[in-house]
Write the structure tokens for this entry.
Amino acid sequence: MAEYFSCVGVLILILSVLGGIWGLHAHAEAAGVGVLFSVVIGLAKGMGPRAFAQSVLNTGRVSAPLLFLLITADMYSRLLAMGGIIDVIGGLFFGVAGDPLIIIALMVLVWVLMGMFLDSVSIILLTVPLFAPIIAQAGVDPLAFAIIGIVAIEAGLLTPPFGMCVYTVKGAVKIRTQLARIFMGAIPYWLVLLVLVALVAFFPGLASWLPNQIL
């Protein structure tokens, strides 16, 4: 019975947050609703004051580094803008090609190459402040650009020699297997990600088609 209540509670939590975003409240309000329902579910399952305080501390330990990352990313983007680096990088991209598709292809190449060596959060924080103004100037749909960036970075994380996702899989499997075998098995998924990048680049409406159908 307790497991059944937990499953139902989590389902209600997901529906209240995601469903609310689609029509009842804004994103920030959805976060508050999620916290409220989480507390209600915890109290209903018998969470005491000590456990509640510990959950608040754990939330702070997770949230504080993320907030510091967001603050430093904003400072980084302002520094780039004040130093004129964004204009220089933009001039390089537009000097190579004026076609938005070629500019996107160059950015995807940078993301895949960086994904060989860095994690996704670092790549996003380093490149998005540089690429976003260039994409806006090129007239590309920002939502499509975001989807392309996320998928391209994930493709980079599957790319040798240091695809972090592949190393994660090797560390998670219990049987002994060669790293090259995991890379070979990841190739179809890598190709699917690149095909998805191409589809969204050529047809930007795909990025917002499903949400538009729901709304």
